[in-house]
Every structure is written in C-alpha cells, then in structure tokens.
C-alpha cells in the first residue's frame, strides 16, 4: 500500500509561480538500500531560485522534479539492506547522494543532485538512498539542521576543508553579508575561537551580526573601499587568515586587499553585481591562496556535525518561518533578500 502525501513539483523552470503543490504517493515497499523519511524541515538556497528561473550555470532542471536540496526529518522505514539507520533516527540529506565519502562534488554532479534532476526536500514523505543521508546533530531543531546540507557545508569546507590550513583559534576571519554561507562561517569561526569581522549593506543587521559574535561590522555601502578598512582591524593591519568571498567580481578586489600574506580567500558565491572583472593574476600581488569552494564531501559533513555538537552551535534562522504550503512565499522572500541567514520551511 502506498503512502499519500503533499509535495511541490517544478511544473516548468521559469518562475516560482510555476511551482505546483500536488498530492503524491510513495511505495510502502522499499528497495534494498532505501530509507523512507518523514520530512520535518527544509531550507532554501540561491541555487533553488536559479533552478526555478532556468538560470542555473549548467543544466536546466527536469520538469516535475521535487525542488529543494536541504532538509531534515525522521526515518519511518528502512529497506532490507540498510545498516546505517533505523526507524526513529533523525537525518539530513547530502545534495549529491551518489558522491563517495571523500569526493568533492563538481557543478555537473550538483546539477544531477537533489531538487534539480532528482527529487528533493519540499515534500512530506521522501525516499532516499542510505548513502545520501547523514545523522542530524543531537543539539539542533529540525529547522536548524535543515540549514546545514548546502550553505553550512560550504562554509565548513571554506574554513576547514584545506588540509593543513584548517581554521584555528586566534585566526582572523572576514565574512560578507548576511546570507546562509556567511552566517554559518561566522558561527563556526566564533565557535572555533577565531575573531570575525563582518560586512553588510543593511545597517539594521549590525546588532544581529554583533550578537552572533562579530567583533566589528562594516557597512560596505557607506564604505565602498572596505578592503583596506577591514584590514586595519586585524593585528598590525596584517590582514585576514580567511576571507569568505560571496560576491565574485564585485567583492573580490576588496577581498584581495583584506587577505593577509599567504592567507586564504574562499570563492563561494556569485551574488554581487557589477561590470568590473577581477583578474586572477591579482592574487600574485597579494601572495595568497584563492580557492573555489562548492559544497563539501560527506566526510566533511560528518565532521561538521561533530563540531556543532561539541561546540553547541545553533544555526541562525530567518525571523519568518513558512509552512510547506507557503513555499512560493518563501522563494519570494529569498529573491527579495528580505531574509537573515536562512529561509526555512517547516513541514508538519
């Protein structure tokens, strides 16, 4: 007997208005390595917006796919070959279920991942392979845990993913804006004992950034040449050990001013606008490491979970939480950049 539930599907890939909320069924007989998950929460990424607009960098989504890559839930049933999970376990999803434990997914693999080519998280019931699931942190709510799979893991990889150059206590970290990756990086860095400086274009976010542990907050709208300014906030103006660059060409020029000798700039996003392109050779004058970061491996995911439990990290969420039936409004809030950190959808 099949289980009935509600889910969203991508009717086309042109706008959030083309999302459809439909009744669906999942089979009660599970395959060898399949896990039935009762979804409890999901969170949205800018990738999700790009998918529904058909503007994702590689391939368009498959129509009728369930959108969303990030989520958390409870195991309701397991297939006969499942050994990693049991009924009642709390789990999260990795965006690329078929990835090996240590592999770093490329754009092509991500494009065939959850919410684009295979069914994602915006549904009440979901079947995943056991290899595509990771145990949820014991100290988090479902909504908090639902923020970890994409933006949380990307932030973790940026700070901890380069072997031998992992973030350590006493380091200085620069984060940009108040999106999911930046806030996760801020929270991880503070928990690890680092000093964090944050930039924002919204003065209203200053107090919230400070409350999460930012030692200084700089408004990049009133200080457009913020690279030298933030550098002056580090000891002897030496610059930052880690810079999390989310804007691409619009921020990289200032990031190169802010980074210290042999420091690391992690390129994690393309959210900025502007016509000026920053030449890669600019890194030669800064003598730094510039590293492209997309998600992270499953091994990194497990390390992040252990860290969050050890340091009792609780991911910051947006003030507005949406029910599953209001997913269109959640996309709209993300698109208008009205949110702080992560837009979360609660699935009852």
From TrEMBL:
GO molecular function annotations of the record: oxidoreductase activity
Domain of life: Eukaryota
Signal peptide as annotated in the record: none
Residues in Enoyl reductase (ER) domain copies: 14-345
A family per Pfam: ADH_N
Residue intervals passing through the bilayer: none
PANTHER family the UniProt entry points to: PTHR45033, ZINC-TYPE ALCOHOL DEHYDROGENASE-LIKE PROTEIN C1773.06C
Name recorded for this polypeptide: Alcohol dehydrogenase superfamily, zinc-type
Organism: Coniochaeta hoffmannii
């Amino acid at each position: 007997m099949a289980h009935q539930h509600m889910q969203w599907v991508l009717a086309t890939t042109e706008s959030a208005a083309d999302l459809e909320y439909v009744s669906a069924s999942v089979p009660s007989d599970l395959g060898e390595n399949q896990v039935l998950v009762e979804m409890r929460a999901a969170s949205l990424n800018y990738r999700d917006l790009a998918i529904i607009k058909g503007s994702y960098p590689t391939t368009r989504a498959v129509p009728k796919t369930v959108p969303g890559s990030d989520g958390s839930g409870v195991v309701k049933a397991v297939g006969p070959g499942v050994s990693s999970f049991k009924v009642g376990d709390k789990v999260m999803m990795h965006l690329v279920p078929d990835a090996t434990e240590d592999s770093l997914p490329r754009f092509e693999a991500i494009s065939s991942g959850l919410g684009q080519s295979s069914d994602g998280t915006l549904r009440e019931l979901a079947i995943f392979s056991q290899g595509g699931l990771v145990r949820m942190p014991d100290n988090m709510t479902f909504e908090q845990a639902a923020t970890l799979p994409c933006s949380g893991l990307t932030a973790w990889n940026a700070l901890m993913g380069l072997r031998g150059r992992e973030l350590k206590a006493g380091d200085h970290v620069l984060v940009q804006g108040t999106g999911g990756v930046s806030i996760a990086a801020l929270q991880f860095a503070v928990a690890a004992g680092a000093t964090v400086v944050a930039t924002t274009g919204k003065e209203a976010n200053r107090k919230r950034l400070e409350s999460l542990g930012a030692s200084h907050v700089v408004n990049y709208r009133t200080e457009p040449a913020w690279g030298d300014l933030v550098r002056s906030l580090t000891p002897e103006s030496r610059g930052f050990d880690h810079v999390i660059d989310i804007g691409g060409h619009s921020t990289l020029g200032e990031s190169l001013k802010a980074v210290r000798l042999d420091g690391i700039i992690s390129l994690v996003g393309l959210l900025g606008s502007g016509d000026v392109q920053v030449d890669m050779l600019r890194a030669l004058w800064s003598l730094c490491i510039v590293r492209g970061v997309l998600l992270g491996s499953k091994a990194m995911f497990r390390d992040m979970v252990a860290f969050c439990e050890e340091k009792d990290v609780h991911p910051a969420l947006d003030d507005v939480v949406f029910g599953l039936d209001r997913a269109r409004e959640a996309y709209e809030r993300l698109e208008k950049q009205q949110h702080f950190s992560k837009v979360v959808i609660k699935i009852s």
